[in-house]
Amino acid sequence: MKTRALAVAGLALLLAGCGGGAQPAAPAPSVASSAAPSAATGSGTVTVLAAASLTEAFGNLEKRFEADHPGVDVKLNFAGSSDLAQQIVNGAPADVFAAASDATMKTVTDAGLAAGTPTIFATNVLQIATAPGNPKGIASFAVLAKPDLKVVVCAPQVPCGAATEKIEKATGVTLSPVSEEADVKSTLGKVSSGDADAGLVYVTDVQAAGTAVSGVNFPEANQATTNYPITVLKNAPQAQAAQQFIDVVTGTDGQQALKEAGFGPGK
Amino acid sequence: MTEGDTSGAVPVGGGSTGTVPDVGAVGGSAPNGRRRLTDRRSPAVALPRLLWIPAACAFALVALPVAGLLLRADWPRMPELLTSEAALDALRLSLITAAISTALCIVLGGPLAVVLARGRPPGLRFLRSVVLLPLVLPPVVGGLALLFLLGRTGLLGRQLDLWFGITIPFTTTAVVLAQTFVALPFLVVSVEGALRTAGGRYEAVAATLGAGPGYAFRHVTIPLVLPGLASGSVLAFARCLGEFGATTAFAGSLQGTTRTLPLLVYLQRETDVDGAVALSLLLVVVAVVVVGAGRSRVAEGLS
């Protein structure tokens, strides 16, 4: 008897656990209704899903926003944009999505999960990352095609790789990389570890890496500017505070923080 | 030899055929050793009913996500997704590197297991915990560790580059090294476990009968350890097939050279989730075939 009761209790717990995970939408209405009176003062938790390259800039903005909006807690969740887009499409509860490419934002808008049209709040361009001090004297994009240079790029499936491919096409320079990495931080890592001579990464990544690498600008980079779109999500539990956060990102303070991190201005 | 000696030796081996990790024989309570082996599949033991609940949960935990993968798959597009050049290159590379890595695990890990089980090396506990480290370390950390040792600016890698002009990262060799690193403990643990279960008495008896260490090793230790070696190899091969983190950190990702199936799955899901699911299922099928084939051979007993 006792053991059977235990088993039933265990099963109930299991089911409860499953139920909790399967229906994140259930508690949302109650949160929204309880938040409604306080929404004017903007209180609650705003969940922001943002591309990993925004870590530094959004970290600064979070502090500023929370200082100006007491009672609002901004929860930042950084990851690769396409991972985040998949999470949103699969029902992850969140208020704001800031993507590192139009293509990843499109996944979310195509699924009808964005509230309104996304705004381009920043742009990013590629830069050549080299060992500190650029010992190989790499001065142009074309020189990366030299066979004695170990060059690492992003795979064409990810935004930085798509930008690389676009520049290759525009310039007629074909690179023979030793590796096509799955994300921009891995590409940078192969350069900062000293295993690759050069890598094509975003100018913001070079800046964030500090003294670990040197950055070489090249004019062709402007032919493949990457857009950073941001939007409030359709099922946002805190839609009003979410819009306030986006206003800060696109406002003077936000643009200044993004500029400091190396981003270009939004549109 | 007296009768007492032989009858005393039988239980040590777990049966007259010498199959060492004979779980069926250990669990069964039949008094006759021969019957135990033939009746292995009979459900002679009554289990406490309560055991079925966690057992079912455990099975569901493993099986349901894979079932989800099957349901999520885009079956009409499957042939097209699996026969792309990138997929075939990755499959070929995965099978070749996993096979080489498993062979390396056997050639290097087998002797290591024998030394750990029989050699009484100083600091045995410490040595064993070092050998088990790849099981505990996140594979990406393992890959970084390999990079710090064998990368172009690494401890050994710098000398290799200076003296021989050899660099290991971004080569298929790096993939094999990463796989061997993560898979080695599986082989060592299996073989060492088999040797410990068997005990050292057979070798001791062989020695009293005049066999030298080499002869005893070849004719007593190796046959004893074969089932453990086989199951360890299967585990190691499966681990090599699934290896992702150490490979991406140490070897990079380039089609035909370093991009194994797991790396292609990871990349593919960025743009084409259906393609990633199809490739994952291919990996599941290969793993199930390998583990299934290996397990059944072990169950039959290789001695």
Q: What portion of the residues of chain A fall into strands of 2 or more residues?
A: 15-25%
Number of strands of chain A: 11
Number of domains of chain A: 2
Question: Percent of residues of chain A in helical segments?
Answer: 40-55%
The description of the largest β-sheet of chain B is: none
Structural class of chain A, by secondary structure, is: alpha/beta
CATH superfamily of the largest domain in chain A: Periplasmic binding protein-like II
Mean pLDDT of chain A: 85
The amount of beta strand of chain B, in percent, is under 5%
Give the fraction of residues assigned to helices of chain B: over 70%
Short description:
Chain A is α/β, with parallel strands linked by helices and 267 residues long. Chain A has 2 domains: 43-122 and 227-265, D-Maltodextrin-Binding Protein, domain 2, CATH 3.40.190; 126-224, D-Maltodextrin-Binding Protein, domain 2. Chain A contains 10 helices and 11 strands.
Description:
The complex is a heterodimer of chains A (267) and B (303). Mean pLDDT of chain A is 85; it is low at 1-41. Chain A is α/β, with parallel strands linked by helices and 267 residues long. Chain A has 2 domains: 43-122 and 227-265, 3-Layer(aba) Sandwich (D-Maltodextrin-Binding Protein, domain 2); 126-224, Periplasmic binding protein-like II (D-Maltodextrin-Binding Protein, domain 2). Chain A has a 6-stranded mixed beta sheet with strand order 2-1-3-10-4-11. Chain A starts with a helix and ends with a strand. Chain A is built from 10 helices and 11 strands. By secondary structure, chain B is mainly α. Chain B has a single domain (83-300), classed as Orthogonal Bundle (MetI-like fold), CATH 1.10.3720.10. Helix content of chain B is 73%, strand content 0%. Chain B is built from 15 helices and no strands. Chain B has helices at residues 3-13, 23-27, 33-38, 52-72, 78-82, 85-118, 124-136, 139-150, 157-164, 172-198, 201-208, 213-242, 245-250, 261-268, 273-300. In chain B, helix 7 (124-136) packs across helix 10, helix 10 packs across helix 12 and helix 12 (213-242) packs antiparallel against helix 15. The longest helix of chain B has 34 residues, at 85-118. Chain B starts with a helix and ends with a helix. The model of chain B is unreliable at 1-39 (pLDDT under 50).
